[in-house]
Amino acid sequence: MVCGGFTCSKNALCALNVVYMLVGLLLIGVAAWGKGFGIVSSITIIGGVIAIGVFLLLISIVGLIGAANHHQVMLFMYMVVLFLVFIFQFGVSCSCLALNQSQQEQLLNATWAKMSNNTKIELENTLHCCGLVNDSNHTEQFQKDFLSCPVSPLKDN
Questions:
Q1: How far is CA 85 from CA 59, 77, 91, 92, in A?
Q2: In contact, 49 and 30? CB cutoff 8 Å
Q3: Residue 157: pLDDT band by 50, 70, 90 thresholds?
Q4: CB 75 within 8 A of CB 67
Q5: Given pLDDT bands bounded at 50, 70 and 90, which one contains residue 96?
Q6: What is the full DSSP assignment across 84-136?
Q7: N or C: which end of the chain has fewer CB within 10 A?
Q8: Is the Cβ–Cβ distance between 133 and 141 less than 8 Å?
Q9: Are 131 and 146 in contact (CB under 8 A)?
Q10: Does the keyword Transmembrane apply (predicted)?
């Protein structure tokens, strides 16, 4: 059984798109399961994961149909969308690598300040901690977080 020319590429692309479809369905299923069982309460996170799963599912369907039918326009659109996704991922990766330690701390502090109380409480319960920081440079913020903390850090788990 020799695989040559477009047949081999077609079969490989079809197999890859089937895997992408499964990953998309898995993302949608895990997000729905997490919301259903109350593991994640943030609807923003759940919505984002479901949106990414649906996007991946749709793109993989376009790639699968394009590869199976040798439809050049669909394959070109598929290639363009994957290239744009690659550029976006590359930009995000470069941005993440460009952040130094102090910029990461500023980003975390800004995010913690905007986070809802339910999300803070969930995070504190999961990590068995109180607040974001507990050093002498941030005593005011630590005292504020400690007063509203549902977890006793002195308990042994």
A1: 11, 12, 10, 11
A2: yes
A3: very low
A4: yes
A5: confident
A6: HHHHHHHHHHHHHHH--HHHHHHHHHHHHHHS-HHHHHHHHHHHT--SS--SG
A7: N
A8: yes
A9: yes
A10: yes
